[in-house]
Amino acid sequence: MNAVNGYLVVFFLAIVMCASAHAQGDSASGKSNIVLIVVDDAGLMDFGAFGGEARTPNIDQLAENGMMFTNMHASPACAPSRAMLMTGTDSHLAGVANLPEMLPEAYRDKPGYGGVLNNRVQTIATRLKEVNYNAYVTGKWHLGHDENTLPTKRGFDRSFILGASGANNYEAQGYLPMQSTAQWYADGMEVDLPDDFYSSKTYIDKIISFHQEEKNKACPFFSYIAFQAIHTPIQAPQEFVEPYRSAYKEGWDNLRLSRFEKAKELGFISQDAELNDVFPQFRKWEELSEEEQEMYSTDMAVTAGMIEAMDFHIGRYVDYLTEEDLIDNTIFIVTSDNGPEGAEYHSTVIKWALRQGYHSDFDKGGGKGYYGATGSEFANAMASPFSYFKYYTGEGGLRVPLIISGKNLPKNTKSDAFCFFTDIAPTIYDLVGLSTSANEGYAPITGKSMLPHITDPNRPIYGKDEGVGLESGNSAAYFLNGYKIVKNNIPHGDNTWHLYHLPSDPGETDDIAAEHPVLFQKMLSEFQYYATTVGVIQMPEGYSAQKEVGKKSVIAMLKSAFPFLLAIPFCLAVFFLWRMKRKQPAKYELPTIK
Predict the structure, then answer these.
(1) What CA–CA distance (Å, rounded) separates 403 from 594?
(2) How is the chain split into domains, by residue range?
(3) 448: Cβ–Cβ under 8 A, 6 or more apart, which residues?
(4) Counting runs of H as helices and runs of E as strands, what totals does the chain give?
(5) CA-based diameter of the chain, in Å?
(6) Which residues contact 360 (CB under 8 A, 6 or more apart)?
(7) d(C-alpha 37, C-alpha 311), whole Å
(8) How deeply is 404 buried, as exposed, middle or buried, from its count of CB atoms within 10 A (0-12, 13-18, 19+)?
(9) Are 168 and 176 a contacting pair, CB within 8 Å?
(10) What are the residue ranges of helices labelled H in 290-408?
(11) What's the pLDDT tens digit per position in 478-488?
């Protein structure tokens, strides 16, 4: 049999297998369609159903038709979270212990710190191929973008992805001095963006086109949609921004308190919970000038508008699946990769961004070319009722929303059971009838299926003696039966371990390590065992994620300016020689004798 005939046989076998599964009924066989939606940098309370200010009717409807989880924990940084999400395996074992952009160069070759998915793990898409799924991905990938690490090499049939950690939402442009360019890839090849590109719109356009172009439509599908919303730069069409222009005029102190009270009202935290203290280096809203208040409140309006715009396009996908009679057999999983972004782009990056063609015009807030960012004070308020934000292992950096919604699943219910990002992949496997332990030759799946808890909320996801460890960028945590030890790195953390009881103290206000020394030492030992098992490496003295990004950005700006810097001494030398020549006395010339 020649190669062409061999491919034809495989092709027709795939059609027969998909048609057979369709004829038997995917619901009966457990092969539901799976839609996994990941929002970038959204805290627990950023969706409407979770108490946020932005209107998210489509996400809210999914929440009403499913189960809302209020105790889901991700990594405090995006790439490690995405690695755990895609594999069900701890980020260190998957090869993405830290963001490449935040890793000191000397650590890039360390095991587990390559910054791209390694070959020790399988992705959800790879595993779903075992049961004849079509697999599609659009949006931010950030798990590698060479010929061996793009989605087409990790089980996905079709893809349209951003390879970088972030980018302009309207055109092919980077967002940091160290990432001044951005590349998108379609089915493994670098491509140009469409003329009408807006990230949330185009990612849904592409995922719908994959369905429309699919030849094996009888097969169940897995759609992974990873939005850029609400990652910096914050950008949204102005029609989505306008309703929020005055929503944040009262500032971050007001937002922080209102979300804290809303969390109590919704039952996310206990009525006796206390609001944590503000970091001493943070400014009070009234200390800002009117212009600064306008800048920050506009950026928050754009943030809310970006969430609403994303929700609008999610609604387009829901409508498409409904029109195609696919919605009844589709399970939606909606979550975020970490807490709110708290980097100080306003003071460190905005001048560079303006030189690159971005603008910060309040009257054009949110639209094409706008460069918005939440800032640390608003990030801290968005993370309320919890402490800290992105890059830190306080609950504000880790606690993210989760919705699991679909046919035959509980509706309009909430769960406060502790769960972790590595639990999502094994839950999907459980939903479609795949074994979570049948991965011989690969790193172990460290997460647990949430399906037993979903079907019976009285069953916990983790037993009293089952702990979960986490480390990213020198910040770390260990969870055990409602208790948490946590170490937050500089500049806002003190690099010291603390012990909290989260059910009674979700804001991490009362360190009880001295009151429970035996438990504290036990959890420290458990964390050390976890760290040794997965290969956690201590970062160098004085390391911080923000400092590393800042250093690399400065180096990038110097490199880009290198030709100009070389021209300066050359021009000075020419000018010096010209001046010297002008100062020399004119030579006397003898008259010509005829």
Answers:
(1) 105
(2) 30-466
(3) 422, 423, 426, 461, 462, 466
(4) 19, 15
(5) 120
(6) 295, 350, 354, 370, 371, 372
(7) 11
(8) buried
(9) no
(10) 290-323, 345-348, 350-355, 375-382, 395-398
(11) 999 999 999 99
**What is the pTM (predicted TM-score) of this model?**
0.90
Neighbour tally for 410: CB within 10 Å? 16
Q: What is the pLDDT of residues 551-562, one digit of tens each?
A: 766 666 666 554
Nearest by Cα to 512 from 521, 522, 501: 501
Its CATH architecture, for the domain 30-466, is: 3-Layer(aba) Sandwich (3.40)
Tens of pLDDT, residue by residue over 299-347, are 999 999 999 999 999 999 999 999 999 999 999 999 999 999 998 888 8
Residues with Cβ within 8 Å of residue 577, at least 6 apart in sequence: none
Tokens standing for 93? 């074992």
Model pLDDT, residue 25? 39
**What is residue 579's predicted lDDT score, i.e. its pLDDT?**
56
What are the residue numbers of the active site? 78, 142
- The pLDDT value given to residue 594: 37
Residue 262 has pLDDT above 80, yes or no: yes
Closest CA to 92 of 409, 501, 537: 537
Residue of higher predicted confidence among 576 and 368: 368
Q: Report the SS3 class of residue 54.
A: coil
Average pLDDT over residues 340-367: 89
- Which DSSP string corresponds to 142-169? -S--STTTSGGGTT-SEEEEE-SS---S
The answer to whether the CB of 86 falls within 8 A of the CB of 429 is no
Residue 8 pLDDT = 40
Residue 103's Cβ-side half-sphere holds a number of Cα atoms within 13 Å equal to 23
CA-to-CA distance for 249 and 53, rounded, in angstroms? Answer: 13
Q: 153-169 pLDDT, tens per residue?
A: 999 999 999 999 999 99
